[in-house]
Amino acid sequence: MVRCFLIHTVCPVSALSAGESRLLFSRVFGPDEGVLTEQHRGLGPEERRLLRREKTAVVARQVRSAVSLSREASGRPPVEAVPGEEALALQEAGSGAVRLRAGDPFPEEMSALWLAVQSLGFTLVCEPHENLPLAEGTLRNLTRHCLEHLHMLGPGSEVLLRSDRVDALLSRLLPHGQLLFLNHRFAQSLEKEVAAYMAK
Amino acid sequence: MYSHGSESLIKQARDIQEAELKKFYRRLAKLLQGKELGHEAMDSLQRLHLILSATKFTRTLPAELQKGLLPLLSSPVEQLQLLSSAVLRETLPLSGEELNYTQEDVLQLNSHTAALLLSQAGSRADLSSLCAQLLRSLESRQSDGPTHSLMQTLPILNTIITHSPECLTEDHLTLLSKKIVDWLRYASITQGGGASSGGFFTGPRSRQPVPTAELDGTVSGDFFTVLCVGQGFTDDQWMNVYSFSMLRHWLLTYHSVPSGSTIADAANRPQLSFSLSHSHSFSNDDRSEVDGSVVSMVSATSSSSRLLPPKERLREKAFQYCLRLIEQSDRKALKRTDTELQKACLVEAVCILDCVCVEDTSLVYRTFPCVKALFGRLSSDLTFARVLLPIAQFYLNHGEMAAVDCESVWKLVFGRFPAELFNSPFLAHELLRFLRLNLESLQLRVPEYTRSFPNLLKFLAWDSPAVVDDFVDLLPSLVTAETAVELLHTMLDLPCLSATLLLQLRSTCSPISEPGGRGLLSLDAFRSASLRGLFLYLLRTEAGSGDTIDRLSTLHELLAEAADWPRVVQCAQTVPVLLHIFFSAVVMIADEKLSAHLILVMLERSSLLLNIPTYIKEIHRVFSCHLLRLCKLRPSLVVDQSHELLEFAGTTANVYSKDEIYTHVVWALGEYLSVSSDSRCSVRLITSCFEALEAVLFEITSSAPPPGAACPVPRVITTLMSALAKLASRSHDLIPRVSLFLSKLRTVTRGGSVAWCTDEEDLVAIVMRGEELWSLLKTPGVAQSVLTPPPHVTTPQWHRDTNLSMPLQLRTLTSLTHTQ
């Protein structure tokens, strides 16, 4: 299962300190694991939410660090794609996987797959036994749809003001965190539904 | 992409004032009371969501607003369902107003309400009742019920069993096993959505159902799978996709081997014998009775499967499904995305086959031919590398049992993959994970593993930050007595390997001569026939062909310009950490000979490193630490290797260029060159050591440092003085020489500043140490016991020591017997 999907900054943000990342969208799937473990049994819903937020912040920071090191190592100048060039942006996007050790921040070991498009990172946190090739494909697909439907290559802030669109996308392509084996026909059918939602 | 606009929006949301917020809540609550909710309501809901999610501290909504939001969850407009669910997820439920988990209208449970229920679940009981509801609705579902609610059932269940597998009862498991079997194996094989083969003029009566097609366009000849396409899909075909998507997780959770079974699994076992007597093929919802007339190649062999209990049946059907997928993946898909899907399906199929073979080892004989054929098909194509890893796992788990030769698999995993695919991040991640998970097994069964470190380290050399964590776990297993020295050399030259890999890639991409371009010296060297051998040594795939090369310094010179390449610098930063791990591991297995060899390597390599500014300093620090550690563990090493250590300590240049190591070598000599460490230590040895150190001390304290060098570090001087004093305390006729030097030092420094020490405080410290040693040496007997303490002082034995134990015993008895 996918534990969470995040959209966050991977560029320096003036209001934040150097290594930190601003979360623009975060969706954690499934029940709160804190409810079922001995450790966190005593926490109320407010504290559990805080814990959830802290965990996603940790993931975002780690991915930010991985992205900047990866970009530094490759030494390639960043490609500035404009709205309409989503396919190019995706092609030029850096990608990788970060190993999140058990306890840091999830109780079990996780793999955080990331795709970095210019100043934003799209991250999928998967359980280690997950089918990573499928996860990578799903991440690329999700990113492409987000870039297109939320006009993310432009200066707008739709990802903040139209977050319901991302939720709609996730409910079709990654329902409750379930990765789906979709051939092009199944995918087309779901994407038609998504497009219908976006048109409203 | 991320603009000031976005940043200021977030800031506004976080900093919104109480008063304004309350006003906003009131307005929204009013809007929600209206009959029709238009754009203003939607936008306000969006704003509310932004405000709530912008901070990590939870805001509580006023009761009337919450009450207004709840009905939206079942609104016919999806956007309202979505927005209300998203908003409610970010806030706390009103006590007493939590969603009722036993609501009867769960049949209308939409995806977004379910998401809210899941995130608000406060206990296992909540999840259990949600499961029970979902399965009730699944059982009693009308065939014309809403499709969406059916389709999300499996994802919801899957996420629940991830956290809490006990939420499903026995009956649930049986029901779901049967349903999944139906969906996987008996989904309809005709296209849904009213597709027909007829043209424009054919009437409804002559509409023939069109069979589904394979990815290459041919008509499907067997049961429906995720790799079948059609114009439209029926419900059960959708369920086929959802079932397969969660199949592996289901098998891992409920079909694991007894020793690691979950509660539900353990409870399942007695049920099996019970259920065998209730032949399940007579139940109504089992569609295997109406097996289609389509000739199925895969399923023809398993006609007896309908007599199996549900769990075994599911296993059998999963097995067949995977074999079919493997066969289907051989077809050339017409679309690129489908080719990628085929690869993902192969990975999943092999993993599921591995899973079922672990559960039922009799399946291994039926599975291996297929997996072997698949390996044969894919092994020469590196684009399938990520598929070959699960195949390697399969071989590792079952190869021994099936007595299959796995050598070609390991040649690929330890040979070609690291050598040719070191720069693909996902393969690196997966391969290293594979190694980590199977470490014990690999060490036992695959001898190639420990010899393959020159190849495996290429992953580290290329992308250190991403994989250093994996190597922290893997490195200890790569340390063996036979290859430890070569491994040490390889690790010290990791930045060189990093540069070489870059050159290798550059060499294949760029033309032989760059017209008018700034040619890289290192690239030319890489391509030149005479120097190529140096680089080829670094690029070797296996250990065993020599610890290192002679012309290492030449190699370092050639790669000098690489010292500021980002990848090389990142690599250099991870080496010290891994060296610590290396030494900690090697100390456990090294004998006297190996320890001596390692000390020599450290001394030799301290001046033979790629010249990256902080790199050399860091390596020296690591060396110092572990040199000392080795000497502490085996003090006789110092006497053994005294010749080489003295050579190092007697070279004055080392004081300036390697002060850290120099200090530690001198300290070790002073501490361990004594009869108590090794009986072979003669007076002559002590004297020659003394003379060597004395000469260096004279030299560095009699004149200014050589041009270009800084003053010697004060600690070097004090360590030299202490070492000389220690040696003198063991051979008393050396004492006058030391005392003379120390008093001379005091005189010289009284005259003011000296050329070899610029800092006032440092000079004072040096002189003070000199005076302490001088006064100590005035009484040789005391000096000896202080500077060369007998072992029973340095390794106290407490109760085992006859001198100490008696008083301790008496004191204990007294305190026990005294009644006050």
TrEMBL record, chain A:
Coiled coil residues, start to end: none
Pfam families: AP-5_subunit_s1
Superkingdom as given in the UniProt entry: Eukaryota
GO BP annotations, alphabetical order: double-strand break repair via homologous recombination; endosomal transport
One cellular component (GO) term of this entry: lysosome
InterPro entries on file: AP-5_subunit_s1
Protein name, UniProt field: Putative AP-5 complex subunit sigma-1
